[in-house]
């Protein structure tokens, strides 16, 4: 049951990937949650994709930035920038990658295959409408292709007739055998980041790992946090001053309450596989109602992560103001902590 404090009208802020259409191919599958499925989600869109061992998300590029989190398995990414500098990297569980808009790249599943989350900085984005090398070649005259590459037209007699999107291929060999040396060198900033291996911010109820342009420098359009909420704990009452929040729940179950002002608040149940969304500056919190930890991602269309803690704000405000505004006594004032605790543990219950 929702809390009795829920009131007023808010749009739906949760949608499950399990309700999304699945695009199947021999090399894997994909499904997406965009503003079409979740109309409130205007700033970001997400794609859940799986590549079989050897499966390839073909050579392609986007008008949008691409941010990714490797959920399980392992993958290999390749990319080339506008200066002819290239990169190749193997990605493991809990790692990120990021490709700026317009940067050509590919993704391939390794021995165990790969499941990952892709996030794009446009709520209307669809992964089925990207710019793909097979699609472009299929819609370019053979004589033009021959002139461009300096080869006979017959070279292109077996070209795919449409976008291949995801396809089957052998598992590639060790990365050192696949490197192509560019005369212009390698990209100056890494396109991958080991988020799960990063030392977390530890608080009483869980952990937080933040990746933005301060520690993952290439990621200039999307910032993220990987949050753990232990059983009974809560992502504290807070809001974000710089962007909407797009969430993906990796494991566990709980509920999120969003406050929109003017007496409007609504609670939503969330579980693994769900996408949540919180508009800019809406107050919100997330409670773990299950027996296992919740792990989820917070994502923002911004170069930096920023949040405002209600508890920290009150702790750093003159106590008399807090007391007169909220009609509370010293009990609350003494409990306020000026050091932010992003995830707070459940308070001890009195003995019966």
Walkthrough of the structure:
- It is an enzyme of class 4 (lyase).
- Keywords: Lyase, Manganese, Metal-binding.
- Its cofactor is Mn(2+).
- GO terms for molecular function: metal ion binding; oxalate decarboxylase activity.
- Its EC number is 4.1.1.2.
- With about 350 residues, the chain is mainly beta.
- The chain has 2 domains: about 15-195, Jelly Rolls; about 195-345, Jelly Rolls (Sandwich), CATH 2.60.120.10.
- About 10% of the residues lie in helices and about 40% in strands.
- The strands form 3 sheets. Strands 2, 3, 4, 5, 6, 7, 8, 9, 10, 11 and 12 form an 11-stranded antiparallel β-sheet that branches. Strands 1-20-17-22-15-14-13 form a 7-stranded antiparallel β-sheet, with no helix packed on it. Strands 16, 18, 19, 21, 23 and 24 form a 6-stranded antiparallel β-sheet that branches.
- The longest helix is centred in the middle third of the chain and has 8 residues, at about 140-150.
- The protein starts with 13 loop residues before the first strand and ends in an 8-residue tail after the last strand.
CATH class wording of the largest domain = Mainly Beta
Globally, the shape reads: elongated
Gyration radius (Cα, Å) is 23 Å
Major sheet characteristics: 11 strands, antiparallel
Order of helices and strands: EEEEEEEEEEHHEHEEEEEEEEEEEEHHHE
Q: What's the pLDDT, averaged over the residues?
A: 98
What would you say about this model in short?
The protein has helices at residues 133-138, 142-149, 175-178, 310-315, 319-326, 330-335; strands at residues 14-16, 22-25, 28-33, 45-51, 56-61, 66-80, 86-91, 95-99, 105-120, 131-132, 166-167, 192-194, 201-203, 206-211, 223-229, 234-239, 245-251, 253-261, 264-271, 274-278, 283-288, 294-300, 308-309, 343-344.
């Amino acid at each position: 049951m929702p809390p009795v404090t829920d009131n007023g009208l808010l749009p739906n802020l949760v949608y499950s990937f399990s309700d999304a259409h699945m695009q199947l191919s021999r090399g894997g599958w994909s499904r997406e949650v965009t503003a079409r499925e979740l109309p409130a989600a205007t700033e970001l869109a997400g794609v859940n994709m799986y590549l079989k061992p050897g499966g390839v998300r073909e050579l392609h590029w986007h008008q949008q930035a691409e941010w990714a989190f490797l959920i399980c398995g392992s993958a290999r990414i390749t990319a080339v920038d506008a200066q002819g500098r290239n990169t190749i990297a193997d990605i493991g569980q809990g790692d990120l990658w990021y490709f700026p808009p317009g940067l050509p790249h590919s993704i391939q599943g390794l021995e165990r295959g790969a499941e990952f989350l892709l996030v794009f900085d446009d709520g209307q984005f669809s992964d089925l409408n990207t710019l793909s090398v097979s699609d472009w070649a299929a819609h370019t005259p053979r004589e033009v292709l021959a002139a461009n590459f300096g080869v006979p037209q017959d070279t292109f007699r077996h070209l795919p007739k449409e976008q291949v999107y995801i396809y089957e291929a052998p598992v590639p060999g060790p990365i050192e055998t696949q490197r192509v040396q560019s005369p212009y060198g390698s990209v100056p900033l890494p396109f991958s980041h080991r988020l799960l291996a990063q030392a977390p911010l530890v608080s009483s109820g869980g952990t937080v790992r933040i990746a933005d342009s301060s520690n993952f420098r290439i990621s200039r359009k999307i910032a993220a946090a990987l949050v753990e909420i232990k059983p009974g704990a809560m992502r504290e009452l807070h809001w974000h001053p710089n962007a909407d929040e797009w969430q993906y729940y990796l494991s566990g179950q709980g509920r999120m309450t969003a406050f929109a002002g003017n007496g409007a608040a609504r609670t939503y149940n969330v579980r693994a596989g769900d996408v949540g969304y919180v508009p800019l500056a809406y107050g919100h919190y997330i409670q773990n109602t299950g027996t296992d930890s919740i792990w989820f991602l917070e994502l923002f269309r911004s170069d930096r992560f920023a949040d405002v803690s209600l508890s920290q704000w009150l702790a750093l405000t003159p106590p008399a103001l807090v007391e007169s505004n909220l009609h509370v006594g010293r009990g609350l004032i003494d409990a306020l902590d000026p050091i932010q605790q992003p995830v707070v543990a459940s308070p001890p219950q009195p003995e019966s």
